[in-house]
């Protein structure tokens, strides 16, 4: 009976670790520009009601793009893009009302689709997100390949291997 509690505890621990790993991956940011001389500019506004002024942004592939984020809301927001292919996850950090900030990023040389969102806790869940279409787009690259998801089966396999001898000993 005691071992069932151990297994329950370890399960909870693994689930919470999985959650934390996902968060770490989502918040990886680049701090320096990855290209200079942008040939295209995109301006996105954060607005009241937990939304951006657009739900889809289209940019060419393999292009140096300047993203500018303007916060038109009284709450703080940021602009975060999930990395895909050769493009790291990047973020224009939290900005206050009326403030605009920019980041210059080289888009990957692939036709794909990724997500943009506000990473302030709770905002994405309330609708502050959209799609970033690169080139002619494609399947959402994030739906099938979250690094956190690949770690979960590994943790579970390890857990089962550890649990079997404990169960047998009883
Ligand atoms: Cu926000």
Rg on CA atoms, Å: 20 Å
The number of distinct β-strands equals 9
What oligomeric arrangement do these chains adopt? single chain
Helix content: 25-40%
Biggest β-sheet: strands ordered side by side in the sheet: 3-9-8-5-6
Strand content: 25-35%
Which small-molecule species are bound to the chains here?
A: copper (II) ion
Report the principal-axis shape.
elongated
**CATH fourth-tier homologous superfamily of the domain at 30-144:** Cupredoxins -  blue copper proteins
The residue ranges in which pLDDT falls below 50 over 5 or more consecutive positions are: 19-32
Q: Gap between N and C termini, in Å?
A: 9 Å
CATH arch. level architecture of the domain at 30-144: Sandwich
In sequence order, what are the helices and strands, one letter per element?
HEEEEEEEEEHH
Structural category is alpha+beta
Rounded mean pLDDT is: 81
Q: Please outline the major beta sheet.
A: 5 strands, mixed
Enumerate how many helices there are, as a single number. Answer: 3
Q: Any idea of the CATH class of the domain at 30-144?
A: Mainly Beta
CATH topology name of the domain at 30-144: Immunoglobulin-like
